[in-house]
Amino acid sequence: GSSSIEQGSPGYGQLLTTDLSEAYGEWIETTSVTFDGNTSELVAALDGDLIDWSKEFDVVLLEGLNLENNGQVVVEDSIEHIETINDRMKQNVTDAVLLVHPSQPLAKAVHYPTEVQSFKSYLTSRGYTYIDHWSEWPVGNVDEMNTYLTDESEPNDKGAILWASALSTFFTGK
Q: pLDDT digit string (tens) for 126-146?
């Protein structure tokens, strides 16, 4: 995911790891990779050593890097990047499954929510599993959204908990 995975104390990545460990014990191992860039740059970075595919992942949970793409990469291209990431994953771990979730919502955004909705529509129409954690956020309520985000629009402690909870519910049903 983006650096948002580490925002909050702890961030949603660590909270999700804890939830999964509590639910599945030694049956699950998690690895977290933070990437600072958009999906185009992520595709280029896959040619390096960003991801250790020898770990033979069963599930790859990918944040769509929507905020990093916003204004830089059009939705159609970001979908092609997701396709490329999925192909690279399958080249290395043939039975792995790619799950995608969006970056965090913003308190005040005009075009970004429409881009994320298009992203979701494209991905689901292509058969990808899309975890829509936005349904848990108070999207559209600026004052309430600001209680989940820092001044830099990153998740604060409360936002990290909300995000992790939505992902954890997908994986554990709790």
A: 999 999 999 999 999 999 999
